[in-house]
Amino acid sequence: MLELDDIQSGVLRPRPSPYVATYILLRIDDARAGRELMRRLCSAVNTTAQPDNPDADCWLSVALTYSGLEALGVPRDSLASFAWEFQQGMVARAKALGDDGESSPEHWEAPLGTRDVHVVLTALSPGQAQLEAALERARQALHELGGVTAIWRQDCHALSTGKEPFGFKDGISHPAVEGSGIPGSNPHEAPLKAGEFVLGYPDETGSLPPMPWPDALGRNGTYIAFRKLHQRVAAFRQYLKATATSQTDEELLAAKMMGRWRSGAPLALCPHHDAPDLGADSARNNAFLYSDDPTGYKTPPASHVRRANPRDAAVAGVVRLHRMIRRGTAYGPELPEGALEDDGAERGLMFAFIGTHLGRQFEFVQSEWVNGGDFLGLGDAKDPLAGANDGKGVFSIPKRPIPRRLKGLPRFVVTRGGEYGFMPGLRALRWLADLRT
């Protein structure tokens, strides 16, 4: 059984929809102050064991970077027991993640990707009023605490459309995790082993994932990849208009690139037209597989959602080994509907990817499925929406008698920064608070 009272709510609990969030980055200048912060956060951070709590969808969570653990004075043998991708940090992994050109770390928003980022606080709730309650807990934890400095903040919000900046319904897919008691969104997907998302439990291989030492530090923790992704909404609209033959065709092309209609209705269930009622129905809008569509006449194999989660496809080994929990929410102003010119504003998504294997989950999906095409026989074709395209990108749409091929795809998503974090369990927070040098 999962020790839900020791696992942060931000690890397993599905986000509310819609929701708002605030990310705060902290720098630890004094180890004793940092440990006191860990002590205070023990009573401020929410756990997953709150099924009947009316505020269960309003939580504060905490993660630490590798340099943050160093700043707290974690012993060297413990530091060496963490995943090597985490030890290296996201900047060192940029090439593997496709963060090149405009997305390369030298262009990232400061202080993202620097050794000054030690702690990531995330407050999340269905609305602004509840968010303020979570933020107040963060303020109390930091109150009159010299030696810990807030160095960055990103406020995120639900758009008036209820969708993400490109115009698609978001937050649809969430896996079921054995022992959590929280249902997944796809009834055709068997619950995944807890060890894929929480350290200290068997994963899909039947083994315990490598866990930081000692057990008091590693157990019930997990890894998280934070990403700030700028979305070029005007460029996406311009591409659709220049490529499509009509307004109807624009919507079809957008759906084919995403794998869903803007309403959230999946092409797998309604390939020829949008179905807003289906898109809005959380009991049906993710209830599908791809086994009846191997060629991709309904959902192109190269589409974003099929790349990110091929479901029952027999590709690249066992798909279940690469599943993650994904969460994202928008930042920045909306580009007015119909506008085709970029207004220069920063807008996009703050994303969090959660799993116990940074290498075979987040990094594998990013490098092999998003920025590669070999696993589906697509050559070097990248994800049409999220891939690191360079103006020469291609996207194939299976069609009888002749497939449709889009060319000249630019980069629609640019990385503004990111961090690898470790989300400790509540007992681990107390262990960190009790460190002595």
From TrEMBL:
GO terms for molecular function: heme binding; metal ion binding; peroxidase activity. The keyword Magnesium does not apply. Its cofactor is heme b. One of its GO terms (cellular component) is cytosol. InterPro entries: Dimeric_a/b-barrel (IPR011008), DyP_N (IPR049509), Dyp_peroxidase (IPR006314). It holds the Pfam family DyP_N. It comes from the Bacteria. Keywords: Iron, Metal-binding, Oxidoreductase, Peroxidase. Residues 23-143 form the DyP dimeric alpha+beta barrel domain. This is Peroxidase. It comes from Pseudomyxococcus hansupus. The lineage of its organism: Bacteria, Pseudomonadati, Myxococcota, Myxococcia, Myxococcales.
